[in-house]
């Protein structure tokens, strides 16, 4: 008896080593909302840079292997899953959609992201969420130093520990950390976990498919002392 | 920007393949550093023997002339020396007791020959040009050894010249490659020269190499010297440092210069990016991680 496998019919595989980065990104960028080809698989990424960048369609892209710089950068709508680790700047400046990293992420993961969700199932290195502007980042492991530096909006959730100078010069992003924080950056303070924060954190953890008790986290935010010029600080400029 | 690669073999059976593996890693890092490239190989050593790697812009003239001079005129303890030329470089193997005589002959009578390295096992090859061309000119894929480090350079702090390329060797069997830039290298160079350390160029990375040499000559271990460097060297750096027995890795506390490491039962490998490591055997099963800022790593035979 012959069975019809609908999944494989919809799946398109691109071998990055054979077909090249330009072909890969052009092909994925040409997909529109109504495309029949919803599922894409990229094989042999071999640490290449700028894989699946600038996508703007609700497609699902799976990368089998580790990537270099800027994987999933400037993403809109697409769901990108990396079965491996990623180099610096994963999902940089993402607007919407979702990027999931099954391994570790190098420095400045999710930098400047305006929206969407970045899930890292391993650890993230330094400067995770630097200057984030609305993106939600959920990290199952630890994050490195200077994370959420000048973060303006969005949520950074860390199930493990945070490195030095967390949230330095923070604006209105919310930081939830379950483990230890090595040190807080300038103008970053611990704040109360209220009902609304527990609720929001539960939603973020569910979205990331992570099992953790929201009540076990601490929340950090801006003390709002660096927002405006203060004449008492004039000598510091 | 620059590219760094390093490979430390735990499995002795891989020693004949060191040059081939390291060369492939180096070429992968071409777009991080297309100006110049270099490799330090820690090869076989023989008891009582010394290796000098020399370089000349006119190798066809200088190397035969030096060989002739050593045969005919030098007052060596043993004439059992060899000079093996590879393009602009050559490795002189001599009795250790003759090394100072040969160094002084080169310094006084062969001004166009430069000493790139000396020690029991180190050999350094570096030149201006694309990494693949440098690898080919020196036949580096044939090299064997226990460990080695390589560098592809995109120059920032000093001119694109052979002597400005990495690795830098400022002490016996020691070398250093650097990605980054140091901001206090001029003052540090003056201090080190005052301590009697020989520094040949105006390059910032050579100062880092000389700094470690100075600390180790005072009795510090490489690990202690690297830790001292965190206090004394100002700027951005990822260093990979080679010694006779192994290699060390250190990133500055800001750690914006990239670094990835991989370890299996057969090797420990370093790359500026994961791309440099993808061709290594069983890399899929390797432990792969990013070295922590301001933490000294060292592997030794």
What does this protein look like?
With 237 residues, chain A is of the alpha/beta class. Chain A has helices spanning 6-10, 16-19, 21-29, 195-207; strands spanning 11-15, 39-43, 60-64, 79-83, 98-101, 117-120, 133-139, 153-158, 174-177, 188-191, 218-222. Residues 1-9 of chain A have low confidence and may be disordered. Helix content of chain B is 26%, strand content 31%. In chain B, 49% of the residues are buried. In chain B, helix 5 runs parallel beside helix 6 (204-217). Chain B is α+β, with helices and mostly antiparallel strands. Chain A binds chain B through residues 46-48, 66-69, 85, 87-88, 104, 106-107, 125-126, 144-145, and chain B through 253, 255-256, 258, 260, 273-278, 288-290, 293.
Classify the fold: give the CATH topology of chain A. Answer: Pectate Lyase C-like
Report on the biggest sheet of chain B. Answer: 7 strands, antiparallel
What is the tally of beta strands of chain B? 15
Q: What value does the Rg of chain A take, in angstroms?
A: 19 Å
Mean pLDDT over all positions of chain A: 94
User: Order of strands across the widest beta sheet of chain A?
Assistant: 1-2-3-4-5-6-7-8-9-11-10
Percent range for helical residues of chain B? 25-40%
CATH classification class of chain A: Mainly Beta
| Global morphology of chain B | globular
Measured by residues with Cβ under 8 Å of the partner chain's Cβ, the largest interface is: A-B, 17 and 15 residues
